[in-house]
Design goal:
By secondary structure, this protein is α+β, with helices and mostly antiparallel strands. It contains four helices and 13 strands. Helices cover 62% and strands 16% of the residues. Strand 6 and strand 7 form a beta hairpin. Pfam families: Peptidase_M23.
Length: 409
């Protein structure tokens, strides 16, 4: 029974150990993938080109909307212009008709005046019509003759009255026609003025439309050029990243070998190399706040999911950077991506071979081979390499693999 229990426990421990190894393997693979893709920051050239491209795209959308609006305004104005031209043509035709009617009315009036003059002249050529009529009444021999002569008088007098009435009607009609001509002229003048003002508006809208069209064309060209520049910058960045990958692999292998050597020395000296808690084993490297934590995140320009293999600390340009623990400087060099880099091997901490890396410094005060003490100033914050401002990108390596530095503070 006891043997069976021991066997079960052994299997359980073996399975647990296998699961633990698998978890560690997955974690390492994730971290390696993140390190392989790491582009936490980008070159200023790429950042500028990308910002320019984004701006061109955004402005192009706005410009295209402005162009559509301008075209809509021009179309509406063109429709209104056609309506106004038709109204003006109608008004001008009305004026022509009214002027023709006025000419005819004037001729009719003059003809009627002549008719009246002739009628009066004919009537008075025989004497005063009233006296002639009165004389004929006195000469009447009977009632029938009187009635007949009175009718003649009425005819003569009525003929004169009708001639004057027709003249008056012609004059009144002429006045109405003259007013119609005046109104038609005013209407034509108003419509011509409105058409002229609308023409000015049309020209302004067409100018705006052309400006909007030119803006779209310019932004299309700008977007194309910006895309070309962004591609060039990206290609340059990718080339630098490939170079960095080789540097990182060499550095990781170097630190891994140093960690293994340190662990072997610890074992040879009879000291325990069992892993333990790491909290509180390192001092903060700068007096500054965390601006970006360790972990996976989406790159703001390339939009891939990658590992930010350290913690970014603010503080400002020239802020002193201190050794987080006693150690030895094993590397100090320039990286196109990380700028000035400093690597300090801290030896074995809590059963792990630990190294720390300082990045983007303005300068360092120590060099390869120097032994540093905890709290010693080793450099000053800068913005070298791919950096948008002075800060410290601080990395902790366990046995050659990046881990979250916050677990050590």
């Amino acid at each position: 029974m006891a043997a069976a229990l021991v066997a079960v426990l052994a299997l359980t421990v073996t399975a647990a150990h296998a699961d633990d190894l698998k978890d560690k393997k997955d974690k390492v693979e994730q971290e390696l993938k993140g390190a392989h893709q790491d582009l936490d920051e980008s070159s200023s050239q790429l950042a500028t080109a990308t910002a320019r491209l984004d701006a061109a795209k955004s402005q192009l959308v706005t410009a295209q909307a402005d162009l559509a609006t301008a075209r809509g305004k021009v179309e509406v104005a063109q429709e209104r212009d056609a309506e106004m031209q038709a109204e003006l043509a109608t008004a001008e035709q009305d004026l022509v008709d009214a002027e023709a009617a006025l000419t005819q009315g004037t001729a009719d009036r003059e003809a009627q005046r002549q008719k009246v003059a002739n009628t009066v002249a004919d009537m008075y050529s025989e004497g005063d019509p009233e006296l002639i009529a009165f004389s004929s009444l006195l000469e009447a021999d009977s009632t029938e003759e009187l009635t007949r002569r009175n009718g003649v008088r009425d005819v003569i007098v009525g003929q004169e009255a009708r001639a004057y009435d027709e003249l008056k009607a012609a004059e009144v009609l002429l006045e109405v026609t003259e007013q119609q001509v005046s109104d038609a002229r005013d209407d034509v003048a108003a419509k011509r003025e409105a058409a002229a003002e609308h023409l000015t508006l049309m020209q302004q809208l067409e100018t705006e439309q052309q400006a909007a069209k030119d803006a779209v064309v310019a932004l299309v060209v700008e977007r194309r050029d910006a895309r070309v520049d962004a591609r060039k910058a990206r290609a340059s960045d990718v080339a630098k990243i490939k170079k960095l990958e080789q540097e990182q692999k060499a550095l990781q292998e170097k630190l891994r070998q140093r960690a293994l050597a340190a662990l072997r020395r610890e074992r040879a000296a009879g000291r325990s190399t069992a892993t333990g808690p790491t909290a509180g084993t390192l001092l903060h490297p700068v007096d500054g706040y965390v601006t970006s934590p360790f972990g996976y995140r989406e790159h703001p320009i390339y939009h891939y999911w990658g590992l930010h293999d350290g913690v970014d600390f603010g503080g400002g340009c020239g802020t002193p950077e201190r050794a987080s623990a006693p150690g030895k400087v094993v590397a100090s060099y320039w990286s196109d991506v990380y700028g000035n880099r400093l690597v300090i091997d801290l030896g074995v901490i809590a059963g792990r071979g630990v190294s720390i890396i300082y990045n983007h410094a303005e300068r360092y005060t120590v060099g390869v081979g120097d032994v540093v003490q905890e709290g010693q100033v080793v450099g000053y914050e800068g913005s070298t390499g791919w950096s948008t401002g002075c800060h410290l990108h601080f990395t902790v390596m366990e046995n050659g693999t990046a881990v979250d530095p916050m677990a050590y503070f």
